[in-house]
Specification:
Elements: H1 10-13, H2 16-48, H3 51-88, H4 91-128, H5 133-148, H6 150-165, H7 169-193, H8 197-222, H9 241-269, H10 274-310, H11 314-341, H12 343-350, H13 356-369, H14 373-388, H15 392-413, H16 421-446, H17 448-451, H18 454-458
Helix pairs in contact: 2-3, 2-7, 2-8, 2-10, 3-4, 3-5, 3-6, 3-9, 3-10, 4-5, 4-6, 5-8, 6-7, 6-8, 7-8, 9-15, 9-16, 10-11, 10-13, 10-14, 11-13, 11-14, 13-16, 14-15, 14-16, 15-16
Length: 461
């Protein structure tokens, strides 16, 4: 049984390293298990349906990114405020945030679910192309059931994150593990057994997400924390809406900028041919898996920082930042070394292609692209720190620079001006991350007293 948040709260007294890994491990498992839905569907559909099945799952990815980006401000902002209010002992406010976010999830998800019969086909035709009838039909089947299930998809995200801020980080992990297990079982039954194809895979995922949401609901009901359904009332009004948006906006901008950065790279490699485009897709997929390790570190340190800011313990806030930066720096160096020294091993693990040209392109691109991990960790942590102390503009600037602006700049000048060709495009994102970190280091030295002092943190309200 997890230790509840009581006085004295473990978030304000326990060693930082132990707290960090208490949150990091379940968060990482949760993030990786969420990705398994797409991986599982892709593997089984690839065997039973073929390229049109895998293509449908892959084409749905941009839709998911947009939906997650739209809901992240509420999830991250709500989580930070809940942690802050619990740390300050104002539990009624934490419960009010929980009610507000749950109401928004049901409204937003409900609108999408009710609109499903009208918007699914236009989206499928736009993404797959009307001329690709089989792919468009499969994509329609996949989107339809995901949209019908959208209220539960959003609630699972919200409730899992809020429980982490209420002292139960393992709840989200357990919910996701339940979802993955059910998804695998139903895929085998509906797709492999009954031959329902993409529709069966989408129904399997929808049921799995609903099951995870049900588990979290039951957990909240019995969890002896500070958020729950006792005296629950629906509300779409909140006094702290500006603070809410300020906390969540940097994460929203980060997701949108991330998507834009990928589009910039994709557009720049199109002239190099299909093999290069395929290599980028595969390398980016592998890098995204490793990037979840960094994202988990950011999400793990957020509730710890938020609580200690609310509890007026600035020394512990800085200790969290120092430990998180050190951890992600070591982790990033390790990942970069793996991508640079043994890219061929990763290519063989994640690709069944026997084409020598493809393998060589993928190996070269991975060795250069994975250099981004040298700086990605500290950038994530510092962005989260500025987000927590309400320096929203700085946090947004960090995300925009590293995720899109610098990528566009380096992709424009490295291939031609520095005569690096395709290698310059592969390096554009790595250089964007490294340049952003160098700017942050300089900024830290110049503005240390203003943004990193005990007084500056203690003044946050």
């Amino acid at each position: 049984m997890e230790q509840p948040i009581d006085s004295p709260n473990i978030l304000g007294t326990a060693p930082i390293s132990r707290l960090f890994f208490k949150y990091y491990k379940p968060t990482l498992i949760s993030l990786l298990s969420i990705m398994l839905h797409q991986v599982i569907n892709g593997i089984i559909l690839g065997q039973k349906v073929g390229k049109a099945g895998i293509g449908a799952v892959g084409l749905y990815a941009p839709v998911v990114i947009v939906l997650i980006a739209l809901t992240l401000p509420v999830m991250i902002g709500g989580g930070i405020l809940i942690g802050k209010y619990i740390g300050a002992g104002t539990y009624a406010k934490a419960q009010y945030i929980f009610q507000f976010a749950t109401t928004l999830a049901l409204i937003f998800g409900g609108v999408i679910a009710l609109s499903t019969p009208f918007i699914t086909k236009p989206i499928a035709d736009f993404l797959a192309g009307k001329q690709n009838i089989e792919l468009s039909h499969n994509l329609y089947d996949y989107i339809f059931w995901q949209f019908i299930n959208m209220p539960f998809f959003i609630l699972r995200m919200f409730w899992g994150n809020f429980l982490s801020n209420d002292g139960a980080p393992k709840a989200s992990r357990n919910g996701n593990l339940i979802a993955v297990g059910i998804n695998i079982l139903l895929d085998l039954v509906l797709v492999a057994g009954l031959g329902m194809g993409v529709k069966g895979a989408s129904i399997a995922t929808a049921i799995a997400i609903f099951a995870a949401c049900t588990y979290l609901y039951l957990y909240v009901q019995k969890h002896k924390g500070h958020i729950g359904f006792q005296n629950f009332r629906f509300t779409a009004r909140i006094k702290e809406w500006k603070e809410f948006i300020n906390f969540g906006l940097p994460t929203f901008v980060s997701e949108i900028s991330f998507a834009l950065g990928l589009v910039i790279i994709n557009q720049n490699i199109l002239p190099y041919g299909a093999a290069v485009v395929a290599a980028f897709g595969m390398v980016n997929f592998v890098s995204f898996i490793f990037l979840r390790m960094i994202t988990a570190a950011m999400l793990a340190c957020l509730p710890i920082m938020s609580y200690n800011i609310g509890a007026k313990l600035p020394e512990r806030v800085l200790a969290v930042v120092r430990f998180s930066i050190s951890f992600t720096l070591i982790l990033g160096i390790t990942i970069s070394c793996v991508g640079y020294l043994v890219p061929g091993l990763l290519i063989r693990l994640f690709s069944q292609s026997d084409t020598a040209e493809f393998r060589q392109i993928a190996i070269n691109s991975m060795s250069l692209y994975f250099l981004l991990f040298l700086a990605a960790g500290p950038n994530f942590i510092l962005s989260a720190y500025f987000q927590s102390i309400k320096k929203t503009g700085i946090s947004i600037l960090i995300n925009v620079l590293k995720s899109s602006v610098f990528i566009w700049l380096f992709a424009a000048i490295l291939p031609g001006y520095f005569k690096m060709g395709l290698n310059g495009i592969w390096l554009s994102r790595s250089f964007a991350e490294i340049t952003t970190l160098l700017l942050l280091i300089s900024f830290t030295f110049l503005k240390k007293k203003e943004y990193y002092s005990l007084q500056a943190i203690a003044s946050v309200n």
